[in-house]
């Protein structure tokens, strides 16, 4: 079996940058060969995609919400736990990872309007891709604020505190 790349090799090879929500990313596609689509927030690409990497040095994707639907695809490394809070407050968890017999998912869909946080479960890294439709725009994303999320979802206070910055 070939040697697995290190997190540092992936960051360099894939040209990843630090992401505001935690981890590292790089946009890999935007559908600029198609007409933009109109949304309530303005025109957007029909589809964008990124690589997203959590590492031992940056193991958390902090609470954030996107207006667009996102499909996540697992690629390499250790499993990543995802915590999802629906608009009605229902909590679900999904583990993206390499081993379906252990309950890992190879892909998952998060509908727009769902709060999401993630955590690397191993000691190396977890690499995924995301396909976003309509395409990602920072204007369509909100970072979770601890006091606001706790007020909205008091039943999830411990998880909110774990995955928000002070």
Report on this structure.
Helices cover 12% and strands 44% of the residues. It is mainly β and 166 residues long. The protein has a single domain (7-162), classed as Jelly Rolls. The strands form 3 sheets. Strands 1-2-5-12-7-10 form a 6-stranded antiparallel beta sheet, with no helix packed on it. A hairpin with a 5-residue loop joins strand 1 and strand 2 (24-30). The longest helix has 7 residues, at 7-13. The radius of gyration is 16 Å and the shape is globular. The N and C termini lie far apart (43 Å). The mean pLDDT is 96.
SSE blueprint and pairings:
Elements lengths: L6 H7 L3 E2 L5 E7 L6 E3 L2 E3 L3 E8 L4 E7 L2 E9 L2 E6 L5 E6 L10 E4 L4 E6 L4 E9 L7 E3 L2 H7 L4 H6 L4
Antiparallel strand pairs: 1-2, 2-5, 3-4, 5-12, 6-11, 6-13, 7-10, 7-12, 8-9, 8-11
Taken together, the total number of domains comes to 1
Q: In sequence order, what are the helices and strands, one letter per element?
A: HEEEEEEEEEEEEEHH
* End-to-end C-alpha gap: 43 Å
Mean pLDDT: 96
State the major sheet. Answer: 6 strands, antiparallel
- CATH top level is Mainly Beta
Poorly predicted runs of 5 or more residues: none
CATH topology: Jelly Rolls
The CATH homologous superfamily: Jelly Rolls
Oligomer: single chain
Please state the CA-atom Rg, rounded to the nearest Å: 16 Å
Pfam families: Cupin_5
Protein name: Cupin domain-containing protein
InterPro entries: Cupin_DUF985, RmlC-like_jellyroll, RmlC_Cupin_sf, YML079W-like
Organism: Halioxenophilus aromaticivorans
């Amino acid at each position: 079996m070939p040697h697995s790349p290190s997190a540092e090799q992936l960051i360099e090879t894939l040209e990843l940058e630090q992401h505001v929500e935690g981890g590292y990313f790089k946009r890999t596609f935007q559908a600029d060969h198609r007409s933009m689509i109109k949304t309530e927030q303005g025109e957007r690409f029909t589809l964008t995609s990124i690589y997203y990497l959590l590492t031992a040095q940056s193991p958390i994707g902090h609470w954030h919400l996107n207006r667009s639907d996102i499909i996540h695809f697992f690629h390499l490394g250790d499993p990543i736990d995802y915590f999802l809070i629906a608009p009605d407050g229902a909590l679900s968890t999904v583990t993206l990872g390499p081993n379906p017999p252990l309950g890992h998912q190879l892909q998952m869909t998060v509908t727009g309007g769902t709060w999401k946080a993630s955590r690397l479960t191993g000691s190396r890294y977890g690499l995924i891709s995301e396909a976003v439709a309509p395409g990602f725009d920072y204007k369509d994303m909100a970072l979770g604020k601890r006091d606001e999320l706790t007020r909205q979802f008091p039943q999830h206070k411990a998880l909110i505190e774990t995955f928000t910055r002070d």
